[in-house]
Records
---
Amino acid sequence: MRYLFSLIGAFLLAGSAVSAQSDIRLFQSGAEKFEALLADMQQAQHHIHCEYFIFADDSIAHRMLDVMKSKAGEGVEVRLVVDGYYDVKRGYNYAGRLDQLRREGIDIHIYKPYVFPYVHRVLRDHRKIVVVDGRIGYTGGFNVADYNIKGKDMYGGYIDTHVRLEGPEVEDLQFLFAEHLEKSGGKPFAGDAYYPYTSVLSEGLDDRQSSVRIVERGRSSRQKKAEMRREVIAFIDSAEVSLHIQSPYLLPTPGVRRALRRALSRGVKIEVLFSQVGDTPLFDTGNVFYSHQLQKRGARVWLYQGAFQHSKVLTADGRRSLVGSANLDYRALRWNEEVAAVIDDREATLWLDSAFAGSVRQSVGMTPQYYYNLPLKTRIKGAMTDFFLSWCL
């Protein structure tokens, strides 16, 4: 009955769902995600920690900052880490406002400021993390910008996937935030108020097992640099019946390509979905070229219409899912700092698969005829994009 409710709810709510088996809530609506996040922030008693790749200078960012200032005035600790590249290059310039925001109670820091000689352009903090009181955590694909809610003229609406968590796995998000806070010049923090589940477990009062694991792509060690890539490959290798893939940029590393070929060769039904018109025309051609290679091996490819599909989601066999910030491309798996939640929860995965099915209904299937009817120069551009951005970057 819970599964039937989740299946029906996926289509009726079209934005979020709550798993009955664990403290997992999923969003594919930016408006619903931010309303839930702001409500949680307003209930904070001890701290609010935010880390974002893009934190725009627009209405949704101002709403978040207003809540942060208000809670800081109540004595809540408020810390914010913003990636330095987008702080400067995309007009979201907080560099000139740091002192003011700090006076207003927000302990804000810029991660790796984008300065001459600009060698860190591809070494960015692409994570999206929020932790409230060490017990509630958010991660996924939504940045803080109005287009996450309103869309953009160039492609209409905007769809992404985010997850709200409650449980021990939130402490892993907390640890990742603390790491980048210190790298950005912030002061370290520690104690039971920040890691409440650790303190409870150490007292032997709770043996709760989480259905969620947090994985990262970081640069603190060789192991961390490869963790996300290994996790994605292992996830694909675990699929026995079905594998659903959503990524706005589908230009994966060689190891991921081999895993997808292995899955197809053992009979896994692979379906891939991305926007027919994305935010980067060059990547659009690369997506089509590579997905055509998968199609020739038996995969089904769907081109989503009417909105930009920015979700980074994998689901396997209707029982496991991976939701996070990492696109299925070389930059995310080799260069950026990323985070994802691996969710072993059938109801959460059912909701994601149901949302995938809903997206398919708003898509057109990519056929061989579709590909070969593209202009020759587009197909050549796609092949070159696939080669240089997946193998030579």
---
Amino acid sequence: MQKISLPERPQWREKAAELGFTFADMHGEPYWEESSAYRFSLEQIESDLEDPATALHAMCREAVAHIIDSEELMERLGIPDAHRDLVADSWRRNEPELYGRFDLAYDGNGPAKMLEYNADTPTSLYETASFQWSWLEDQIAAGVLREGDDQFNGIHTALVDRLGELFSAGTDLHFTAVGGQPEDYATVECIGWAARQAGLGAHYCDLDQIGVSPDGQFVDHESRVIGTLFKLYPWENLLRDPYAAHIAGSGAMFIEPAWKAVVSNKGLLAVLWQMFEGHPNLLPAFFAADVAPALSGSGAPAPQVAAAFARAEAQLATGYVSKPIFSREGASVDIIEHGRPTETAGNRTYDQHARILQAYAPLPVFDGFRPVIGAWIVGQTCAGVGIREDRSRITQDLSRFKPHFIRD
């Protein structure tokens, strides 16, 4: 894994504007940044990223089955009591999933370490699946990259195939996101584009324009009944929304399904460590309430985790990351090393939520920036990667997106 300086395409901003990539620059700073790119070997992609991400996804599915059978875990993961049956029934009915994104720490020498799983509403899909692929094609055509250079990026094709598996040709799908958010709309439109290529109907409606008919069905802004809804709106919010009372009786299929509420939740990290302690792609993680007193020297760990904590205590004492079970774009995340906070997120939006503590895995540093690998799952298989980097050790909403290529 290397970071290679490359000439930018002369008119890439014009191309971005033409394609509707309106957030390539944000707040006067580049979001898409192509003056350099990350180079991987095929072995690194296949053995260190693709196969482990697919295996991690299978482990997460095992964790879902464990969590939904435990009232204690449903409580600890913040699933509202009124909707726990909805979440559990969604899993037991095998409601289908479409996509997700693992965030991994990786420096070119495996194993990659799972930082979290964005399993419900992952963004950066358009720039990963589409714009970085066009970058590869353009740079090969210009002679900047070599013929034979490749990219791990079968995401769009995988989405088309997955949607074609799930729905009969001609099925109408609805898509929604909070209005006025260009990045969210780009993600939704990326999936809508895949749906249309799969021979499906794709209708967009802003989230606040969805209503409920007199007989309890969800309807769009043109009063069309919503049979299947792709929603770029997190389950942790939806389950606390008054509209949640209508979900079970609406007859609508949701993508992502309600069971994703337990894997789009950082409490999953503690559950995975309980189930798969020592797995090479996992970091020790615990519910903060169980181990924080022991780490601060003010008490003992909870009995149910005492043995596992003892095995991880030395690593956690060196450094850990405190994360709310609900958090987006690094908000309310803190890094603690040797008992002292050494970096804290400025955005404290999620401070009110329960926390997990995860062993700190320092990100590699390339030219002053720290990359996080986003490994995209479509269906149940890893289909591609995207990279975001930041000077900060906490990846945030304005962290830069960097393209990648494969060359042996």
---
Amino acid sequence: MMRVAVLMGGVSSEREVSLKSGRQVCIALSEAGYEVIPIIVTSDLSALLAALTPRPDVVFNALHGRFGEDGTIQGVLDYIRIPYTHSGVRASAVAMDKAAAKAVFAAAGLPIAPHKIIDISELLEQDPLPRPYVVKPVNEGSSVGVFIIKKGDNLHAGIVADWQFGPAMVEQYIPGRELTVGVLENRALTVTEILPTEKFYDYHAKYAAGGSRHVLPAEIPDDIAARAKEIAVAAHSALGCRGASRADLRYDPDTGRLILLEVNTQPGMTATSLLPEQAAHEGVDFPELCAWIVERATCRV
């Protein structure tokens, strides 16, 4: 029986989400017939290495955020030669760095919004872009630290005072609808429209029960859905992702504009997560999805 260690927790702002993902993955993999070893990751690397002894056959990486999906843990696992799920060091690091990822998307000819990188203190001086625009950390996920600055808003001082994320990306706000597309290798699953019950699709809307409603397949024109899938697969390929990923996009029905926002190289696996929901819609249940991800685990040796 294949032994699979499931890494969860970590030290990022997404620790609680990772714990939820990891616990559900453990249950699914057990149902799929694997021997599962749950490992709650902390800042103690020596403890993690000890927990990986004796060596499992595969690591299922259910970590999110810094050190978990930015290439750090991937490098550790490459070094000790344990195959692991999801993307490798380079793809993980580039996707987590929003500025680097957008450079890759631009080079691949994918549609992105105008943006720039600033020191957060610059918000006190003037608007770095015409309003409306979005302020977000360069290296965080799950919409942590994301703000939308609209006409008449006076949020700058509060954002600067509370900011703890390093450099910021400011990006033109794209009006319209929130879409996401899951990708399994070179196959796009379906297009989901996300309808947040709050002001926008922030951390709470993503993970709280009732925080958002998912419509799948999205009720959009067929050509837009096809294009969204093409963009998601192309972005997965451009970054060099492997296994599963999920692309987030904005669609403006008034102009037909479709914009790629970012790619998540380790999509969430919670009860409200989008990738498992899309896979189920395509006939792939959760244990089968987790097994599919495990069977494609590898490392750079």
